[in-house]
């Protein structure tokens, strides 16, 4: 527990400059892009020069970029992410409204890819070089090479358009009036295709990593000694080989969290899931800089939290990691 707490403090302190760099870098990049929220608004509804000037003053866009950046950082110290010009609501309220949908999609896809990928990796690595190993390795490579949007479209055509087994898009049935368990089942039914589309891509990665890790463990001395003592192969696979090959996959969970968050942007757009990815797409279209920075900041914080949880899990699984972190 002391190791985990020491690691937690170090990671939290180290995350502060990371978030600061994310905010400042995002602001400067968005400022370098042509146009602003007023230009996007006028392009859609029209307006004269007086209206444009009034909007710039009202939205605070008449000040210099450095002045607006300083004002934003000061507001951020008070946990104020600004006001969305597209939704006319506080940015934090808009982001928190969409965040649970993205967390549900990412969490379910991570659980699917990790559990199924690890299981198939154990089956492939149990007998390296066998026909089963070759078949699973080739299948995982082919699956990893498939673009996420293409896989999502194929699944939609097959299971929603042709077979009509699953909903085409959305998070739940609109105006269904369902509550409790009935609503949960309706949401789960709508999430089958998005979760499968996002999870299958990373399933292939975990499968190949697990298989490669087991192939390395098979050559280690303690595994050879266990085989020489006549221990049953299934016990060696589960108690020795798979257990030692599993630790690098915990590290991969943290490395893949940012990529999965980026992949959810495409999946949410294809299936019209109202999450952070689709919200970011709407913010870009309306040039809503405060909302876009808020989304980036919350996403960065989410990745930091996921990495922190994985680091704690790693320290619990391997005490040497936690001890070295605390001493450092």
TrEMBL record:
Q: What is its main location?
A: membrane
Q: How does this protein sit in the membrane?
A: Multi-pass membrane protein
Transmembrane segment boundaries? 12-30, 103-123, 135-161, 187-207, 291-317
Keywords attached to this Swiss-Prot or TrEMBL record, sorted alphabetically, are: Cell membrane, Membrane, Transmembrane, Transmembrane helix, Transport
Q: Which residue numbers delimit the ABC transmembrane type-1 domain?
A: 99-314
Annotated compartments: Cell membrane
Q: Hey, which family's this protein in?
A: Belongs to the binding-protein-dependent transport system permease family.
Extract the PANTHER family matched here.
Answer: ABC TRANSPORTER PERMEASE PROTEIN, DIPEPTIDE TRANSPORT SYSTEM PERMEASE PROTEIN DPPB-RELATED
Q: What is this protein called?
A: Peptide/nickel transport system permease protein
Originating species: Aminobacter ciceronei
């Amino acid at each position: 527990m002391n190791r985990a707490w020491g690691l937690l403090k170090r990671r939290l302190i180290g995350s502060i400059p990371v978030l600061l760099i994310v905010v400042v870098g995002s602001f400067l990049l968005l400022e370098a892009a042509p146009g602003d929220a007023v230009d996007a608004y006028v392009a859609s509804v029209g307006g004269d020069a007086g209206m444009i000037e009034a909007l710039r003053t009202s939205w605070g866009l008449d000040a210099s970029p450095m002045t607006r950046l300083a004002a934003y950082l000061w507001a951020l110290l008070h946990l104020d992410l600004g006001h969305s010009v597209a939704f006319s609501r506080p940015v934090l309220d808009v982001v928190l409204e969409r965040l649970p949908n993205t967390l549900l999609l990412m969490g379910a896809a991570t659980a699917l890819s990790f559990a199924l990928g690890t299981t198939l990796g154990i089956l492939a690595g149990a007998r390296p070089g066998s026909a089963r190993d070759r078949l699973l390795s080739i299948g995982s490579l082919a699956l990893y090479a498939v673009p996420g949007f293409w896989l999502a479209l194929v699944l939609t055509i097959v299971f929603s358009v042709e077979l009509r087994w699953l909903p085409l898009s959305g998070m739940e049935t609109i105006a269904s009036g369902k509550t409790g368990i009935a609503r949960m089942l309706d949401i789960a039914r709508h999430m089958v295709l998005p979760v499968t589309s996002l999870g299958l891509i990373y399933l292939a990665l975990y499968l190949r990593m697990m298989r490669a890790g087991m192939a390395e463990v098979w050559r280690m001395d303690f595994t050879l000694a266990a085989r020489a003592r006549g221990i049953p192969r299934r016990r060696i696979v589960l108690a020795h080989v798979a257990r030692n090959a599993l630790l690098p996959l915990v590290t991969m969970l943290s490395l893949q969290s940012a990529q999965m968050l980026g992949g959810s942007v495409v999946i949410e757009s294809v299936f019209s899931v109202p999450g952070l990815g689709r919200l970011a797409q709407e913010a870009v279209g309306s040039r809503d800089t405060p909302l876009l920075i808020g989304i980036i900041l919350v996403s960065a914080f989410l990745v930091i939290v996921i990495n922190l949880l994985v680091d704690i899990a790693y320290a619990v699984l391997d005490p040497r990691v936690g001890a070295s972190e605390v001493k450092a």
